[in-house]
Batch of 3 targets.
Target 1
Amino acid sequence: MVRKYIVLITDLGEGSPFPGIMKGVIKSISPEAEIIDLSHQVRPYQVEEASFLLMCNYKYFPQGTILVTVVDPEVGGKRKIVLVKTKNYFFLAPDNGILSWVLKKEKPEKIIEVKNEKYFLKPVSNTFQGRDIFAPVVGWLAKGEKIKNFGPKIDKIKKIPFPEVVHQNNRWIGKIIYIDHFGNLVSNFAQEEFSKLLEQNFSLRIKNKIFSRLSSSYSEVKKGEPCLLWDSFGFLEIALREDNLAQQWRIKPGEKVILEIKRESAKGP
Amino acid sequence: MVRKYIVLITDLGEGSPFPGIMKGVIKSISPEAEIIDLSHQVRPYQVEEASFLLMCNYKYFPQGTILVTVVDPEVGGKRKIVLVKTKNYFFLAPDNGILSWVLKKEKPEKIIEVKNEKYFLKPVSNTFQGRDIFAPVVGWLAKGEKIKNFGPKIDKIKKIPFPEVVHQNNRWIGKIIYIDHFGNLVSNFAQEEFSKLLEQNFSLRIKNKIFSRLSSSYSEVKKGEPCLLWDSFGFLEIALREDNLAQQWRIKPGEKVILEIKRESAKGP
Amino acid sequence: MVRKYIVLITDLGEGSPFPGIMKGVIKSISPEAEIIDLSHQVRPYQVEEASFLLMCNYKYFPQGTILVTVVDPEVGGKRKIVLVKTKNYFFLAPDNGILSWVLKKEKPEKIIEVKNEKYFLKPVSNTFQGRDIFAPVVGWLAKGEKIKNFGPKIDKIKKIPFPEVVHQNNRWIGKIIYIDHFGNLVSNFAQEEFSKLLEQNFSLRIKNKIFSRLSSSYSEVKKGEPCLLWDSFGFLEIALREDNLAQQWRIKPGEKVILEIKRESAKGP
């Protein structure tokens, strides 16, 4: 696997100097590396948001890419840092659960606890280890260093639960887990799990709004009108055509979404 | 023409994951490609804003650059996607008029309707074709694929009118068409058309403010004072020195700008 | 020194088209150049903020990097543009004092006043010389042009004073000089100067809040609680764990920070 591609997913801030500093450290070690920003605008300290972006999007990067996730509320504390090799990718992240969702999709072949200080920038600060640990480690990794050199092999990473839809009293209770740049709401109803169910007559409620049909694209409804569709991440999305639904309806991540199937009347031909 | 440079102009959001995903897809196909972000912060769905940025700035990129514009309110609908070759550049965009202003400056040599699904990422989503169509097509194009392979030749693209200044009752009525990061206002008075006229005595009004002289740089006026000058895009700009005029005067794109020439008294020697 | 790396520090705006335009100009001249954004989100016209970022972070970039700082309130006016060579780096900036802090750390070996118009983009605008002067000059420099070709050697650059902590009546009076993306406050108490002093019993006050101990990392305090620590820039930082202190306490750059050493009682063993 060619290792030159590095993808950064952080909460360090678009426009903040921190991502650029990490790139300086990486390129100082590995001049051939090519760095792609997936996002530096994960909401500060939101491990789940970074996990979601990583899980949905890692597969669009070239084989051999090193995906580095720095959303690290315990920076400088006792959490480990882990490097995981899968069949197609490398993942480097604090061991705070951030890799647990993506590694359900990409089976880990080897997990290393990164602790060989030889590869760190000294002195290691306790506030910006993106610069002092993550960047130099990924620089050396991209340069071809063997992963066993970064530290001991370990058996498992920390896991955090995916916010699954709950089935209760004939209703499915989900929630909004991501709001995109356009104000579109992404729920936790996964297409692979719910697409069959939504071919029946259904009613889906968020706040006091009710949806009973799926659109196949935004352009099926009129400007300013709401629609429900499968989004590009593979989840059920609620959007206003050419408007910002999250702002207009004042919805934040965590808002409940309730699905009911109307079993009495079958869908018409 | 070397085809390795790709410029992205989108409303996908600075800090959103979407531009990074497109880059992953492009680099997976064309490892030699170099991608430059012109802006991902076009206001959502504002086709005219993207058209303006493209028209003013395409010429600063190397010959052979592929300029990809993804501001696509009808994504997933019936609009076409077009690939245009000019003498110096390639342009890829939804056929919603977004290329009509730039193609007055760069004569199209060949227009292709992009429809050969062989080059698309499958399944093609109806919500993020930046990832599923634009990115892989530009990847293959950068890799050297012949443009005729992407689809049939067509004769013309959709056109939208440029917001020209209107001449009426001895007055020229224009408007603000772009507000930059500093809060400077860019009007539709083009330097090549109006520079002669503004050598006469004139009065230019926006809201209740009147200007009667041109400055040659911001530093000709005092801090916090307004000035009128030809900007770097080639249009008449109104600015506050070292302050944000759009915020201070609460002005938005679309605000009227009225020019009158005082013919009675000629400008002094 | 390999000259291919170029770092941009500007107030041109993340998401604005201006940095991308500069990159187009640079790559048109020097296809081998690699450009890293340190920040385009310096607050508009804030020369001191750019100076601070440059001073703290230049050293993380590869030897030979050309660091270009475009925060230029006098653009188009009479200020000079200077190119400075040090042992390890090149610096290009308006001569408005922006280089004076970093050049205390990196001794200038040669200072050139950039005025050879042969290397400028014509016509040179008076509003965006990042595009018309800085970008093409750095492009030619990265391509290997001798620095003496850009203009005459001069003896010194303009200097602006660093906002030093003031010692007065047994108190040290400092201030907040930078607020980062997380809302953490960076003061002007430098670690190399004050770390010994803060090993004694002390009291540090900002607004009506008092600190009397240093933490070694954010994770030493509970979520939402304030802490005081040496930050990754080498200065004393005040932060809320996993929250935005600047927003919560409504603090802006310039806020006073007052340190007193309690000499009566020595710190316990």
Note: The mean pLDDT of chain B is 96.
Target 2
Amino acid sequence: MVMKPMKALLDLEAGMRIVMDAARPIERTEQVTLLEAVGRVLAEEVCASMDVPPFARAAMDGYAVRAEDTFGAGNFSPRILELIEVIHAGESARLSVRPAACIQVATGAPMPDGADAVVMVEDTELDRTNVMVYKPVYPQQHASPMGEDIKSGSCVLQRGMRLDPSKIGVLAALGFQKVTVYQKPAVAVIPSGNEILMPGEALSPGRIYDINSYTLSALISENGGLPQIFPIMKDTLEAAISTIREALTYDLIVLSGGSSVGERDMMVEAVERMGEIKFHGIAVKPGKPTLCGVVEGHLLIGMPGYPTSCLTNGYGILAPALRKMSRLGERALASLKAPMVRRYTSTIGRHQYLPVRLDGGEVVPVFKESGAITSMADAEGYIEIPANVDLLEKGEVVEVLLF
Amino acid sequence: MVMKPMKALLDLEAGMRIVMDAARPIERTEQVTLLEAVGRVLAEEVCASMDVPPFARAAMDGYAVRAEDTFGAGNFSPRILELIEVIHAGESARLSVRPAACIQVATGAPMPDGADAVVMVEDTELDRTNVMVYKPVYPQQHASPMGEDIKSGSCVLQRGMRLDPSKIGVLAALGFQKVTVYQKPAVAVIPSGNEILMPGEALSPGRIYDINSYTLSALISENGGLPQIFPIMKDTLEAAISTIREALTYDLIVLSGGSSVGERDMMVEAVERMGEIKFHGIAVKPGKPTLCGVVEGHLLIGMPGYPTSCLTNGYGILAPALRKMSRLGERALASLKAPMVRRYTSTIGRHQYLPVRLDGGEVVPVFKESGAITSMADAEGYIEIPANVDLLEKGEVVEVLLF
């Protein structure tokens, strides 16, 4: 084994441009039911083939009237209209509203012919078949015209929109049962490292359980991907080549593990032989030994082997790439601003992801070391320290991105 | 049909206290695999039955040494050590490191007996079996002790934690394949209203498609619940009673529709007969005709029939209740602050949810009317206007909660 130190590091911005450029939005689509559609990305333009509502309707419980019949009504001078019919929601009036008459309507009921407004029940009194109207209405008051919500022919949802509850409501309003969405990117998660075992296997000397495949899969699920964990890749060039070849049926290939320079060289060589290395080594902390390549058009990201490095780069590099592929767009991580509990020194020249928790309104760094998954699990979020900043003062206000 | 106007409105805070008090966290648990566990809530305390790492290990690629053998090393005065063995990750050394000797180790490899530090490969030169060390190390440098990440016996994850990628990583590190989480609350979504049809049915005069069951189900899924849409409830007291009885196998009952006072009275009567009305009518806009009851210990929420009213109250009232039941805790909706594009007047005495979108960095109200689902679908989020505020000035900075 010849151990070669990594070459000069690429800065994060340049690295991200390369990754984002190689990450291509998925074009494949599938049909899902409205109940399955929440959080998915619409793959068709949705144009209305009907008006919503499909008829003019009462917007209040009350009496459908000819507005002019109510003009001049007041608390001491009610206009008196004859109640000629009572209809409920879902029913249509048989009669038309003629002058000095009215029809009782429930909210949502179709407006009877002849009526152009609804007097609210609160502004009336009923005496057998006489309705005393105490307040005038103007034409169209408390009546929703046909197509007020959605006009037939209008295109209400655009391709690429994320389907949130309101947009699913629009589909329901138009009578859709299914909708065409983009497929989720399929992601091959390939663990490697002779020292790792899958959870559930019996631990033997020198071995540890695979952490990265699980943290990455969880992150992939959270960011719109479909992870598939591969068997642990053997530490040989042949194994790397045949595994990557098998993974070419996936949209994105994520290699996890291979933390040591030796293992990494083997991955680098496999990618070099099969495609192109875009970069190897990036100026972030932790997470320096990150690899980016393209094999037959497929983006391949080699994550650092250390669990914290792997996961912070998961948030920083993998998730944005995946969100471009899945078309979910940038993740709006909830964030808050709070002061540092103590001075913190960072490494100049490397963009740092610092896991933190909040204690009494102050930001407490919880980074233990890159090899410790508890560095992340004890954190509530992270702060980013740009490459050109080497010191955060005690009390300095920073932005915490919450997991 | 006798139409009764609603009684005095409860303020939002008092209403929320009632709803939140009646919403009880789910106690039932289930086992899921680590891959299914992301976003779920842990129902057990997780204590380590092993150290992580389970052995002292090299934290760098390099040479395991006795630190004292490197003292005094410098660029012009290397210490020369004999390379007696080469081990890779996953292997254990057969030999011990004796004075003036070293063993080549990869990151993650167990520390050989006798060694107490690792010299980084960058600080050395190899000449056949002689390793020139150009920089001294102190004891424990670049070596991670056994249990550094997690100590055997320590309890690392607590019941009630939401399983994010890092916490799933902790479970993987400890060799877990499955984990016990709280079951998701099962939610009965019961549409009503004689005027509604399910999407896919042929539209007939006076009828509209059900929107609320779909917006609510999407919202329920997004907030940790398992929605089940019931058949459309008939508009009779008997139907209401038998449907609610059937829904008592669910954790939460959500009635949607019944926008008119008449339909609502029927629901109120059914709930009064079977259990207790907690409130009927709340000082929010839109969403006033909201009903809260408890039937045999089950929280029941009657949502307003109008789609926008229903969905804003879904975000404002239903989602917090569900997140208490599912133990997900308050939703940290991403938010941003921006100025109002124009003056906006609100209703004093009612807490308003105003759907808005952002245009050129300014907040644009998009509220059309409560009956229009496009009031919400055209919005990117909403602002809240407290009951005691009746005016937002043009340029006033408000907080937008993003969907």
Note: Residues 57-144 of chain B form a domain with the Molybdopterin biosynthesis moeA protein; domain 3 fold (CATH 2.170.190.11).
Target 3
Amino acid sequence: MEHGASSVPAALPYYVAFSQLLGLTVVAVTGAWLGLYRGGIAWEGSLQFNVHPLCMVIGMIFLQGDALLVYRVFRKEAKRTTKILHGLLHVAALIIALVGLVAVFDYHKKKGYADLYSLHGWCGITVFILYLVQWLMGFSFFLFPGASFSLRSRYRPQHIFFGAAIFLLSVGTALLGLKEALLFKLGTKYSTFEPEGILANVLGLLLVCFGVVVLYILAQADWKRPSQAEEQALSMDFKTLTEGDSPSPQ
Amino acid sequence: MEHGASSVPAALPYYVAFSQLLGLTVVAVTGAWLGLYRGGIAWEGSLQFNVHPLCMVIGMIFLQGDALLVYRVFRKEAKRTTKILHGLLHVAALIIALVGLVAVFDYHKKKGYADLYSLHGWCGITVFILYLVQWLMGFSFFLFPGASFSLRSRYRPQHIFFGAAIFLLSVGTALLGLKEALLFKLGTKYSTFEPEGILANVLGLLLVCFGVVVLYILAQADWKRPSQAEEQALSMDFKTLTEGDSPSPQ
């Protein structure tokens, strides 16, 4: 192990700060786009649609991304505390995303539009169901006390891979939605470099950058959360005996 | 190390076979979409545009994805041979993608359309430039004999991360392009579940699945190519002396 439980890799805080700057900028630019070019946000009329992109970006992009970073940021806190924070961020993301989903289905219903006909809709509903399944699996394996040590160790790599994959799919789905919103409104005017088109393209690139930076932080092997001393000791001595909390870094 | 140089992880061949089935299906469905609904392919008139999606899918998705899998598939061959195959697949991908790019710029020019105004265009040109830079960096560090052992070891994780990131961005860019092509042609008819819309949505999901399966194969730590015995020996004995080929698994 390169870093003890007490040391923080030198570059990590800068990358985390940069990811937060990018994430907040994404949320702000989404708000600016909806405010400047789409008439703002309300739970009635055509403005109800605008709740959808804002909630999905806050929930499925920003909060979901931050939930993945929790184990890199909170390195010295007890594993259990960090886990609960990870779970709570995902609950917040899920609730906000649900509001965003209700907004678009309700808007479609009132306007008599079809649901889930586009690639954005197909990807979106798939990703949301996967996210829900991932949340329930994560809860039952890691927060619910019943799962055994060996079950947890076998499921952990799958949870980490599909967590990252679902996050990346969320970013991709957001790009498809943004593109759809642009093309429906601008049509061929999109090719005349309208200010709205340029702002939305910038928002798309910011979304991509947020996704890449979060993935970069997750992918650095020596930025992973170190095992705590007491967890390591447990791991060495009781690996095959205990069925308790998992000792390995996450 | 869990696997010796001679053993292949039991599940790996099935995942690789599945990835190839998906990749070939993606290419076939792209061809079917262009043939059935877009009049086929030619280097003249409006059919010239159709060269673009087909070439980009073959080059930037299928061949690029396969180039990333080379180190997982060829586990017993000499490191040098595997490297050259990795480089050659990327050269083929690059040339085919270039043909696809020339097709769309030439088509835009003949029709008097603007270039690079959309999010698809912005993402696409960014990804292509990153891919070119990645290729040149990879060539100078790993195939050109000048780079030192320590330089190679430090660059390797970056090369692997950005290789995967560029591949995923290519998949995302393809989805955006597909969506653009659909919305420009179908417009509001997209919401009536036109056969072309459904076929293209299926193609989009297949592209996503190919991306996820390739990423899954790359992400499994114990599916990585094992160090060859002679490379390991070199690594142990001459690590600080030699400036030759890199001994660690890739």
Note: The first helix of chain B runs from residue 12 to 37.
